[in-house]
Amino acid sequence: MQQLTDLLTSHGLDALWVSKPENVRYLSGFSTPKDGLVLLHKDGVLLYTDARYTVQAEEECFVPQHIARDIDVIRHARTLLEGKVVGFEADALMVNKLRQLDGLHAAQLVPTEGLLEGIRLIKTPEEVQKIREAQRIADEAMRHVLPMLKAGVREVDLALQMELYMRSHGAEDRAFDITVASGYRSAMPHGTASEKVIQEGELVTFDWGARYQGYHSDTTRAFPVGEISEELKNLYRHTHQALQLALQAVRPGAMTSDIDQVARGYLAEQGLAEHFVHSLGHGVGLAIHEDPRLAKFSPERPQFNVPLQAGMVVTIEPGLYISGVGGVRLEELVLVTETGCEVLSHAPFAEV
Amino acid sequence: MQQLTDLLTSHGLDALWVSKPENVRYLSGFSTPKDGLVLLHKDGVLLYTDARYTVQAEEECFVPQHIARDIDVIRHARTLLEGKVVGFEADALMVNKLRQLDGLHAAQLVPTEGLLEGIRLIKTPEEVQKIREAQRIADEAMRHVLPMLKAGVREVDLALQMELYMRSHGAEDRAFDITVASGYRSAMPHGTASEKVIQEGELVTFDWGARYQGYHSDTTRAFPVGEISEELKNLYRHTHQALQLALQAVRPGAMTSDIDQVARGYLAEQGLAEHFVHSLGHGVGLAIHEDPRLAKFSPERPQFNVPLQAGMVVTIEPGLYISGVGGVRLEELVLVTETGCEVLSHAPFAEV
Ligand SMILES: [Mn+2]
Ligand SMILES: [Mn+2]
């Protein structure tokens, strides 16, 4: 709580109106945070949710709850916030909801961004443990489904088997819609599994993860079915090399854009940089995509370029996509340690 | 397109900046609408999405696409919108995204709510067909899982089997997190399936649905395991009767609050009204919860009370929840017809 009180003080706030689901869950333990709101103020934390969740909120929350909705939430909060300086999350509050906050009367509303995300950057040992468990379940799912990968199988059936495995082995859900992208579809960086039938000679990208007690895992692998072309093998090997080089560069103090550049620079040397169309990685925790972002340095967004710190959990995921040819992405989930990084993902790699 | 142009004209808009995922999908066909935006203007419709989706958008969209993100979207849109009156969706645009729209310069930004939702209220025959298909798959899933319902089984395993069935029989996803709530957990209106083991003598609520080509189904049933108490039987029978009475009242011209009152009034006569803690129903389509809302008349929100019209698809779902005792909810999905309604859901009911 001291850390939270300091956060308010250092931003000149008396309170923070928390609507971003990950932050609501972080502060309260409420597992249906889209239907909740948290009021963080100097004397404590309060969860608002509605009557559908009375019993559930009692069971789950480690902070007091108040059951109300819409206008009644505002009426209740007004008694605590009148005349106060109240921050809100500009990237997690709809324009019409901000207008409702005018009902807080004499409160002064201040847009904020990234306050709680800054605290969530560094994972506690308890949080790392939940991410490890999510990753462990996901790794097992890959081992379970790999023998089913062969020509004639539909992408969507493999995705479903992975998800079924994860959810029947402790995951509360898939971390995101699973990608199984084969052949020409592997040229789509986000090719959620389709009804396409996998063919001999194709490379198949899997991007999957589990959610365990709110925390996510995230990994990508690519496997050939039968013999694949030299061109695809080449893409695979260069992606794999870019991944290894970037992993070796991860350590506390390294700038996120520099890690991105290690992979991007290597691919540029191979004449492939134009096919690496996304950034290198992202933080993972209560959100599947969170800070820090490992991306190319952008003069328009210099704030995204930050030094890595021990306790961050991030992905490293170079990828190459060539329309009409195919694509490859390989992704590891890593914990930044005092001396470098620990790779948390242990799913097998193809031999290409 | 004429209907869309008229919508703009009647609201004094030159264009509408569409960020609500359901509306993005409705206007473009793009199946990952959270990562897209639509610009609706008088000469046409344009989808913006980023380079991850180039191939997918080409495959799916029935409108032109422009690949860009963040500031580049604004730069592109500016050439079309300079000096124009541009509506945005106040209930689907984050406060910080609204600030980005200032980059449109001389455009005049106008908050709107419910514009496209008004068009989506009445389903076309093609839309009804997709909802029917989603419901058909969901009904089959209930028949598939019912033989597995017995003491000793975990809620979460039944939910997983239902979802697996739906997704391996044509559904693109579950419509929402499936509720399986047994015994004391049935007193939670939104008791997503837990690891609780189902016991003899419990009543078990299932609330589930499928998503098919973007369209949802939504149904609730409750089944006893072995012999249940007279108190639970009583709750079940009164909920069932409230459902039947409300269904009989559904017809074009009936006010949504009056349908709610048919169920609520019956339950009040039984002395049970205080346990019916939510509204009677909601529209279903590209969103699982959409307009119209079938709710108690609220003087603060008189606009929610509207006449039903043929072509609307709505749920009727009375429920009773008593903490420490248990609960029941029963839900049908119905199409409002010229003369009354057609019940689209055909999952079996318990005999209680
Ligand atoms: Mn990732
Ligand atoms: Mn419903």
Automatic annotation (TrEMBL), chains A, B:
Domain Creatinase N-terminal: residue ranges: 2-122
Gene Ontology MF term list: aminopeptidase activity; metal ion binding; metalloexopeptidase activity
InterPro entries in UniProt: Creatin/AminoP/Spt16_N (IPR029149), Creatinase/aminopeptidase-like (IPR036005), Creatinase_N (IPR000587), Pept_M24 (IPR000994), Pept_M24_MAP (IPR001714), Peptidase_M24B (IPR050659), Peptidase_M24B_aminopep-P_CS (IPR001131)
Gene3D superfamilies: Creatinase/methionine aminopeptidase superfamily (3.90.230.10), Creatinase/prolidase N-terminal domain (3.40.350.10)
Residue ranges annotated for the Peptidase M24 domain, each copy included: 130-338
Annotated keywords: Aminopeptidase, Hydrolase, Metal-binding, Protease
A Pfam family per the record: Peptidase_M24
Keyword Nucleotide-binding found: no
Signal peptide start-end: none
Top-rank taxon: Bacteria
Protein name in UniProt: Aminopeptidase
Species name: Deinococcus cellulosilyticus (strain DSM 18568 / NBRC 106333 / KACC 11606 / 5516J-15)
Lineage: Bacteria, Thermotogati, Deinococcota, Deinococci, Deinococcales
